[in-house]
Design goal:
Layout (H helix, E strand, L loop, with lengths): L4 E5 L5 H11 L4 E5 L3 H7 L11 H8 L4 E4 L2 H7 L2 E4 L19 H13 L4 E5 L7 H12 L6 E5 L9 H6 L4 E5 L3 H14 L8 E5 H32 L3 H9 L20 H14 L3 H28 L8 E5 L14 H11 L3 E5 L5 H8 L8 H7 E4 L2 H5 L4 E4 L11 H6 L6 E4 L6 H7 L2 E4 L4
Parallel strand pairs: 1-2, 1-4, 2-3, 4-5, 5-6, 7-8, 9-10, 9-12, 10-11, 12-13, 13-14
Helix pairs in contact: 1-3, 5-6, 9-11, 9-12, 11-12, 12-13
Bound molecules: 1,4-dihydronicotinamide adenine dinucleotide.
Length: 463
C-alpha cells in the first residue's frame, strides 16, 4: 500500500498548516482536513483563514480544492483515508482527577472511537496531538475494542514541533521528523508508509525512528527544555536588576559558548502560547503519578518562574506609575503571545492586562493581528474577571498604534511585533501625558533614543 489519501482530524494551528504543506509537497496525495467546528471549516474555505501564519495563505489558495480539502464530513474522510492524523486539542483538564495539570484526552479519545466505528478498511492512525506518554496504548485499546470485522489499525506517534509564527518555514525545513512505532513488523511497516509521505521533501537523515513511548515523551521533553531556557534567562534578569548587570550582555556572553548556543535566550515578560504551560503541567503530573516527586518539583519550578516574571513586570508598571494606576490610561502594544501570530492562548498580555484592570486602569490595546472580539473574549473570561461589564467599559481596542497611545500615561510592550520597533516615537511622545513611560517587556526598542526623546524607560534585566 502506498498512502494516497490522508485525513487529518482537527483543523487548528497544527492540522491546518501541516496538511497544507503536505498537500503542496505531495501532489499525488489527497489531503482532507476535518473538524467538528463548522465555523472553522467555513473559515478555511473562505478568503480569510481562521489563523494567521506567514506564507500560509498562498499555499492554501494554491492547493485548496486541488488536493487539499476542508470538510465537516468526518466519517467520509476517515472512511476513504489510508492514513489519519489525530491533530485535535489536548488542553489541561479543568475538572476531576488531575484538574489543572493533567492533559484532557477527551478529544483524542472521541477521535479514536469515531475512527473505530466508521472505518471499513485498514488504517494507519497517527498521533500528532501532544499527549502523555503511553497515550497510543489507550488509542489502540479503543480501536481494538470497537473495530469492524477484518479491519486492522497501526498507531504511530508523530509529534509536531512547529512553532507558531514560523510554522510554514518549520514544516518545510523541519529540524527533524520524529516517528515512534510499535516494535513489531507491522509497526515498522506503518513507520515506512508515513516516512514515504515526508520523504517527498524531508531528507531521510532527518527522519528519526524511535519506539512509541520515546516519541511521545520527546515532545514533552522538547517543550520542557525550551520553556526551561526562557525561565533560566528570566531568572538571570531578576539578578541583573538587583545588581546592575545587563541581561542582554549576559545572554550574549553565555550564548557564544557553543555548548549553550544563542537561541531562546531573550529575557522577557514571560512565555505564553497554548503549549509550554500545558505540556509542562502534564509532565509534572506524569512525574507525580509515577511517584517521582523530585522530578516533578524540578519542572514545576520552570512554570513558577514564569508566573513570577509576569507578575514582576506587571507590578513594575504599577510601582513606576507612582504606585497607582487607578483611572490612568495605559496603552498595550501587542496582545498575541508572540509576533507573527494572532494566537492569544496563555499570552502574557492577558496577565498584564488583568493586573492593571484589577488596579482600576483603563487600557488602550493595539495588536496588528488579534481580532478585537478575541481580546474582549480573553479579558472577560471568568479566570480574568468576575465583572465582565466593567472590563468592557475599561478597554478600548485600536487599529492604529498612534491613536492607541495618544493621551495615555504609559506604553506597555507585550508582544515583539517588528512594526513596534519602527514607530515614530517622537510623534507618539508628543501626544502622551507627561511624564510618559515605556515598559519594554520584550526588549525590542532602542532605549537610549527613547530616553533622549524624553520617555521614562523601563525594561527587563537592566536597571
Ligand atoms: P486547536 O485548538 O487550534 O485545534 C484543534 C481542533 O480540533 C479544533 O478546531 C477542534 O474543533 C478540533 N476537534 C476537537 N475534537 C474534534 C473531533 N472529535 N473531531 C474533529 N475535530 C475535533 O489546537 P492546535 O493548536 O492545533 O493543537 C493541536 C494539538 O497539537 C495539541 O495537542 C497541541 O498540544 C499540539 N501542538 C500544538 C502546537 C501549536 O503551536 N499550536 C505545536 C505543536 C503541537
Amino acid at each position: 500500500m502506498a498512502v494516497t489519501k490522508i485525513c487529518c482530524i482537527g483543523a487548528g494551528y497544527v492540522g491546518g498548516p501541516t496538511c497544507s504543506v503536505i498537500a503542496m509537497q505531495c501532489p499525488h496525495i489527497k489531503v482532507t482536513v476535518v473538524d467538528i467546528s463548522a465555523h472553522r471549516i467555513y473559515q478555511w474555505n473562505s478568503e480569510k483563514l481562521p489563523i494567521y501564519e506567514p506564507g500560509l495563505d498562498d499555499i492554501v489558495k494554491k492547493q485548496r480544492n486541488v488536493n487539499l480539502f476542508f470538510s465537516t464530513n468526518i466519517e467520509e474522510a476517515i472512511q476513504e483515508a489510508d492514513l489519519i492524523f489525530i491533530s485535535v486539542n489536548t488542553p489541561t483538564k479543568t475538572f476531576g482527577v488531575g484538574k489543572g495539570r493533567a492533559a484532557d484526552l477527551t478529544y483524542v479519545e472521541n477521535c479514536a472511537r469515531t475512527i473505530a466505528q466508521v472505518s471499513t478498511s485498514d488504517k494507519i492512525v497517527v498521533e500528532k496531538s501532544t499527549v502523555p506518554v503511553r497515550a497510543a496504548e489507550s488509542i489502540l485499546k479503543i480501536l481494538s475494542a470497537n473495530h469492524k470485522p477484518n479491519v486492522k489499525f497501526q498507531v504511530l506517534s508523530n509529534p509536531e514541533f512547529l512553532s507558531e509564527g514560523v510554522a510554514v518555514e518549520n514544516l518545510l525545513n523541519a529540524d527533524r521528523v520524529l516517528i515512534g512505532h510499535e516494535e513489531t513488523a507491522d509497526g515498522l511497516w506503518a513507520f515506512k508508509e508515513l516516512s514515504k509521505v515526508y520523504l517527498n521533501w524531508i531528507p531521510e537523515g532527518k527522519i528519526l525512528r524511535t519506539n512509541t513511548w520515546s516519541s511521545e515523551l520527546t515532545k514533552l521533553a522538547a517543550n520542557a527544555f525550551l520553556a526551561q531556557r526562557i525561565s533560566s534567562i528570566n531568572s538571570m534578569s531578576v539578578i541583573c536588576e538587583a545588581t546592575g548587570a545587563d541581561v542582554s550582555e549576559v545572554a550574549k556572553g553565555i550564548g557564544l559558548d557553543s555548548r549553550i548556543g544563542p537561541k531562546f535566550l531573550q529575557a522577557s515578560v514571560g512565555f505564553g502560547g497554548s503549549c509550554f504551560q500545558k505540556d509542562l503541567l502534564n509532565l509534572v503530573y506524569i512525574c507525580e503519578c509515577l511517584n517521582l516527586p523530585q522530578v516533578a518539583v524540578y519542572w514545576q519550578q520552570v512554570l513558577d518562574m514564569n508566573v513570577y516574571q509576569k507578575s514582576r513586570f506587571s507590578n513594575k508598571v504599577i510601582e513606576s506609575l507612582f504606585n497607582t494606576v487607578t483611572n490612568k490610561k495605559i496603552t498595550m502594544f501587542g496582545f498575541a503571545f508572540k509576533k507573527d501570530t494572532g494566537d492569544t492562548r496563555e499570552s502574557p498580555a492577558i496577565h498584564v492586562a488583568k493586573t492593571l484592570l484589577d488596579e482600576g486602569a483603563k487600557l488602550n490595546i493595539y495588536d496588528p493581528k488579534v481580532e478585537p472580539e478575541q481580546i474582549k473574549k480573553d479579558l472577560t473570561h471568568p479566570y480574568v474577571t468576575d465583572n465582565p461589564e466593567k472590563v468592557i467599559e475599561s478597554i478600548e481596542i485600536h487599529n492604529n498604534p498612534y491613536t492607541a497611545a495618544a493621551s495615555t500615561h504609559a506604553i506597555v510592550i507585550c508582544t515583539e511585533w517588528d512594526e513596534f520597533v519602527n514607530l515614530d516615537y517622537e510623534k507618539i511622545y508628543e501626544y502622551m501625558i507627561k511624564p510618559a513611560f515605556i515598559f519594554d517587556g520584550r526588549k525590542i526598542l532602542n532605549h537610549e533614543i527613547l530616553a533622549k526623546i524624553g520617555f521614562q524607560v523601563h525594561t527587563i534585566g537592566k536597571r
